[in-house]
Amino acid sequence: MAKEYQFNWKATVHPLLIQGSIFDKYEDVGTLSTGSAQMDSPLIDLNSFTRVDDLGFFLYWHCEGKDTQLIDLATVWEVRSGALPKDSRVLCEIERGGGSAGLPKDKADAIEDRLVWISHGTDLVNPNHLFLLSEDPEVAKTWRQALNEIIRGSRIKFVCSTTNLHKNWRRLCLATNERRKIPMKNIIRMFEAGKPEKMVQKCMSDLGLGGDKFIETLSNRSMMRKMRSLAMCGAKRKKEREELDVELFTFEKFLRLYHKICPRTDVQELFVKLSGQKEYLTRERIVTFLNEEQRDPRLNEILFPFFDIPRVQQLIAKYETDDKYIQDGKMSGDAFLRFLQSDENSSVFLDRIELHQDMDQPLGHYYINSSHNTYLTGRQYGGKSSSEIYRTVLLSGCRCIELDCWDGTGENKGEPIITHGKAMCTDVFFRDVLYQIRDTAFVRSEYPVILSFENHCSKSNQLKMAKYCMDIFGDMLLTRPFDDYPLEPGVVLPSPNKLKRKILIKNKRLKPEIEKHQLEQFLREGKLDEEEEQMESPEVTDDTASPQCMDDDSSGEEDPSVQSSSNVGWKCAVSSSSRPSGRRPSKSPRPSLDRCSTPLLISSAILLDRSLSTKAERASTARSSPKFSLRHAMSAKRRPAALTAAGAAAQQQITAAAPPAAICMQQSSSTASGGASSAASTPPGGLNENEKVMDEAHPELKEKNFISKLKPFGGKKQAALEMLEPFDRNDMRSFKVSKRNQDEDDGTGMPRSVSTKTKKKPALTKEEEERIFAEYNYTGATTNIHPLLSSLINYTHPVKFSGFDVADSNNLHFHMSSFSESTGLGYLKQSAPEFVNYNKRQLSRIYPKGARVDSSNFLPQIFWNAGCQMVSLNFQTPDVCMQLNQGKFEYNGCTGYLLKPDFMRRPDRTFDPFSESPVDGVIAATCSVRVISGQFICDRKVGTYVEVEMYGLPTDTIRKEHKTRIVPGNGLNPIYNESPFVFRKVVLPELAVLRFAVYDESGKQLGQRILPLDGLQAGYRHIGLRTEGNHAAGLATLFVHILLKTYVPDELSGLVDALADPRAYLSAQQKRQEALHNMGVEDSDIVEVPAGGKNNSGKGRGQLQKTNGSVGNLLNDNNVSTPRGGMGSGGGGDSAAPTTSRSHAGEVAVGGFKVEAVDVAELRKDKAFLKIQKKLAKDMEELKRKHTKQRESIQKQQQTNVDKLMTDNQRSQKRKDRGSGYGSRHQSLSGKESDPARIADNEKVRSLVSSQTNEWSNLTTRHEMEEFELKKQHIREEYEALKKLMKAAHDSQMALLKLRLDAESKDLRSTQTKKNLEDVKQINADKAFKTKQEKERRVKEQNDKNLKMFLEERKRLGMKANKHEEQLAKRHSDQFEALERECSKAIEQEEANYKEELLARAPGSVV
């Protein structure tokens, strides 16, 4: 069951305040008019009976014979004690008045204790002041404490509409006339913005509130003064006034009157819709309404349970007045309206108003409410400074304030002041500001306050600044780091809880070793070396000096709070013995801080400092500034050419008083600086005019011709500047503490401030101010820091920003940097993720650029998106940017600290503030706002309209786009009833805020409200409006309907709806099926298709999917019956034989293009290959002819040899035969033929045969070898030719494939372009988008969506094309390898054949 949240907005009111007390009342004289009517009225009201109502709404008082006056306590800033009024007239009234608080002589000193000083009003810059003087100091003390408790614990800004109505009714009842009755004109005035007076009077008469008539008699003197134009002098006139008894005007009658005059028809229409035309709502319908309409569906069901019947019955019993309805579990229309206007139906989660965030995280994990140039009450140029504004700024929740510290001028020389340097602004005392800070720093919030010093003071004034801070703040000032949070690399900052009620100072700091040395010297001797302020010591650095002594803190912008972090590999070397620690005594043997803070030591140190303030000393101080060219040029005019005798004597005295080391340094510095130190001239009477100029950290401010240094404007602008030239700085910076100034004070008892008795000068135009600021030469804050002031800096140590990589490598969390608005935008543009990571570790401060002379503000949301903690704004300007700041920080108990989102704190997360896609772990949201009506929007009868804006990430920010129509002539209860304003996609709801703003028909803002999106409640809600200063705007409210849900892309909306309500989805399908059945379609004729089939609809999408299908099947689709393996399926194994046909080895389909495998048999038919074959055959024939000739020659030769041998044998035989007696020829011949054995036995024959056989065999072997080598060469050449032919075929195939793929890619691009154009055309034609900006945003969103989809499709197409090319290349490689294998096999086969022939061959011969 949903639990009831108890919102306790009621403040505890002390019984004494309810009973009332007698006071003498007077107001701030400065707020009174000087007209004759005001001069006649008494300055003080004696014996005013003052009370507070029991609910703590109002403080009211009445005197005898006067109307009751009241103050809304929600507008009270603070209540404090005060001093005697400085206005002599008020003082005389108190002394002679004889009232309850008359001023006896013995009680003059106790006036501060008897005074109740109330600052109130909606203006942060100029609040009103009311003073109540009591006779008893204890009564005044009780009133001060009790009123502050009411203010501190009040949550009246967040109360519901019913409570605001009750408060307004009580206002009417308390604001009685002198007869203690309610003037009916007050009631009529409440409704005159939308209803005529006669109608209101008739409604009041119908309710029995007609009132009584009272006749008032006006005196002659009054008539002469007030109605002289009517010539009614000397006569008495009777005037009838209608009034009403307070007892008759009950709250119930007030509500009846309100609903009678302003019936809530909008709520009635909603009630009729929910009840189903009945006069009541049942419990079941209320449960459905609360769970479906009034509940954010993204909420966790355990932490935020659903409403059930018992909980609804509790609501009925609480808001229903009819007992019968309560018993039956019914809710009437009036009870329903009361529920909608109650705290239980608040527009935000009311627990977010209280302190609910974890405050134990490091300081850098929080957004910190920050102010820029806090002392200014108006413009940046020529504006007025005030110490009082520090009070209101701190009381409004600010936790970081700025103090621009300069040396005092004129009679107050030597006193630190606060002003905007060189901008012709008035001044306030530094110490007065510290008192204001001390009194109000922790009144509204106990969490730490950061004082951002922009220090331009000399060392003597810096010493005073440090002493003032320690003496005035006391234990509130954090003077040393905590032991568990040392100033070391990698150590995180302490948490806000750890720093509770502590004040931190942000100022430049000396290097630790230099600070320790100088601080020890100061504590030991009570002074520092003269040379440290007299000249540029190498131990103190700026932009031009050596960086070995101090980190540079000059940013070159208007706010010089950045410091160099190049040499930061050090630890804080100042121990507890050498670092001051508030008022605690030091255990060091050196003199303690208490001793050095004694008046004697401080005064002696200051006097010594002043006695050594020569011109050379101050000149070196001026040159030590980062930008001293203008100052040096101005002061150089006043330098005398030679040193006078008095000046030389003074110089000798200074030299004698300085230690020897300082004298050496002074001489060397004098020589190096060209004798600048010898140019001092001191008259006998003391410091001369030149030395007074050089004794200041900013002597150029004394120049009367500062404006003349600027480039001339010409014409009227030049004349305007000439009027500014005689402006005396002393006139603007007058701190003369004289009797006259005290008598002419504001009479408020405020701390002493600067008198501004300057004559009014002609106002500059905007162009002239911009021109002056273009010539504005900013002087950076001094780098010559006093060690005592430096020792007060700890966790807010400003350094000059040197880059994100340097800061990351240093890893010093206590270092922080300041960025101007423009510089911050530059870093944000270039390195947004790095900026976010930097802000996870260190503090950063953003301040407005110098061109904002009118004190306008920049949009803080830009830098909140990057995690910047201190986004400093001009609090005196209540523009939209300031309203965003105040609206954001009014949550979390108005502590001034807001915890950043988790992903902006964790070092393992990366965040880009310009991202348009959801962050990991964060679910995008959709917000829909429908503005239904408004109530009490304006007290005038004017036309009004409402504007709804969203601020967050750049992709979430929507401005000046959603606004309602103008409802004319009704500021009371306009009915807008607009169609919903839809914020479709909020990428980061945790950073987004929703802004409601109401304007009149002329564009003037009437009210506004900032609501954080992560704390917003869905449903029908009443939103209370705020003024431009973020104060409650009374009864002004908007009735809206808010719809919150998880963002779902359009293409998935149907699926999400089906998943969210399957029964409704199925019922819709059943209805369609029944409709088809009624048209004669049988169920069996319907084929079930996937739920996502609707995505295929649309011409462009269908073409796109068709293209994607062809590309997707790039390697598999085939229109002919070929193997699915295609070209990628082992084609190399089919090429074992050279003559094997491969026409059907495999093919690859690319759309309609078929890539066939290269057939070697076809390559052998190529002309080039046939030509090579013919050449090779010719070479073989020639070799064979050559071999034939060689064989024939050998045969012939061998035959000749055989014949010769045979002839010789025959002759030899014949001779033998003749000798042996053979006689007959026939016998010798037959003997020759029949006796081969005898021939074989012939030795010569055998030798010849053997030689010829060997010769023939060698010849044959050689021929066969040559033929074998030639055949192998032919095989290689043939295959080389085949490789070339195959390579050409492969290149042709690959080129053709790429052409086809390029064509497919072009078709895809064409289809995508067509689809994108059709989507844009469809969006522009959609009438659901009413505004041009909404259409443009939807077009942009659709373009981004299409871009992602198109890139993915092209990437997918490219990947598949690359895969196909790789497969084709692999197929080609396989074919090459197969060809190589064939070549190797052919050679191997030839070798085998050759070996077989060798083995089978027998020796042979020709014979």
TrEMBL record:
Residues 1265-1292, 1325-1389 form a coiled coil. Residues 789-905 form the PI-PLC Y-box domain. Its cofactor is Ca(2+). It catalyses: a 1,2-diacyl-sn-glycero-3-phospho-(1D-myo-inositol-4,5-bisphosphate) + H2O = 1D-myo-inositol 1,4,5-trisphosphate + a 1,2-diacyl-sn-glycerol + H(+). Keywords: Calcium, Coiled coil, Cytoplasm, Hydrolase, Lipid degradation, Lipid metabolism, Metal-binding, Phosphoprotein, Transducer. Residues 528-542, 550-560 have a biased composition (Acidic residues). Residues 908-1033 form the C2 domain. Residues 1125-1134 have a biased composition (Gly residues). Residues 1182-1194, 1232-1241 have a biased composition (Basic and acidic residues). This is 1-phosphatidylinositol 4,5-bisphosphate phosphodiesterase.
